[in-house]
């Protein structure tokens, strides 16, 4: 699944094409996309043109407090964005033990252990590489433990303990 604004830099079309490749190879896969934006219609048109409607669904935006429920219902979170400082959705996915795939050289790549980067990171706009990574996760789920130092409660607590406010 993927939750993101439908903007060119979020690159959902690459994810759609990667899923299309997997389907053409006989893989059983469903993709849920949530969001809105300027590239939504072109993505819907592509799915319609390629007769992928039964495998790829477009869902309306959901309230942020329901995001956790969505992420817990999917097997893999994929955000093929190629301009992402640090997408909170990666951390939310990671915190729920839902594996994710991101694009190399984006903010999240700095938090992934070096020996796991090949599992979790793909090249920009590379649907073949992305399809292979999705298949790898489908066949062999790979996880790495969520580092509690990134837990929002700990972050806020540490922020306040460090007395960053002037008195």
Q: Work out the strand percent.
A: 5-15%
Q: What's the name of the CATH homologous superfamily?
A: Glycogen Phosphorylase B
Q: Percent helix among the residues?
A: 25-40%
CATH class placement: Alpha Beta
Order of helices and strands: EHEHEHEHEHEHH
For the residues shown, what is the average pLDDT?
A: 88
Kindly provide the radius of gyration, computed on alpha-carbon positions and rounded to a whole number of angstroms: 17 Å
| Shape, per Cα inertia axes | globular
Strand order of the largest sheet: 1-2-3
How would you portray this structure in words?
39% of the residues lie in helices and 11% in strands. It has seven helices and six strands. It is globular and about 45 Å long.
Summary?
This protein is 39% helix and 11% strand. The protein has 167 residues and is an alpha/beta fold.
List the helices and strands and how they pair.
Elements: E1 2-3, H1 12-24, E2 31-34, H2 40-49, E3 56-59, H3 67-73, E4 77-78, H4 88-95, E5 100-103, H5 117-120, E6 121-122, H6 127-139, H7 152-161
Parallel strand pairs: 1-2, 2-3, 4-5, 5-6
Helix pairs in contact: 1-6
């Amino acid at each position: 699944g993927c939750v993101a604004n439908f903007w060119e830099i979020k690159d959902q079309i690459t994810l759609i094409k990667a899923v299309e490749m997997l389907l053409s190879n006989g893989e059983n896969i469903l993709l849920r996309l949530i969001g809105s934006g300027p590239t939504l219609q072109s993505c819907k048109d592509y799915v319609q043109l390629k007769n992928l409607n039964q495998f790829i669904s477009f869902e309306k935006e959901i309230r942020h407090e329901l995001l956790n429920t969505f992420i817990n219902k999917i097997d893999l979170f994929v955000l093929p964005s190629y301009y992402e400082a640090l997408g909170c959705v990666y951390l939310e996915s990671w915190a729920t033990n839902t594996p994710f795939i991101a694009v190399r050289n984006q903010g999240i790549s700095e938090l992934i252990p070096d020996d796991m980067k090949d599992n979790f990171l793909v090249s920009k706009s590379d649907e073949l590489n992305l399809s292979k990574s999705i298949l790898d996760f489908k066949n062999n789920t790979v996880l790495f433990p969520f580092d509690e130092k990134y837990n929002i409660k700990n972050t806020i607590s540490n922020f306040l303990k460090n007395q960053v406010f002037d008195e």
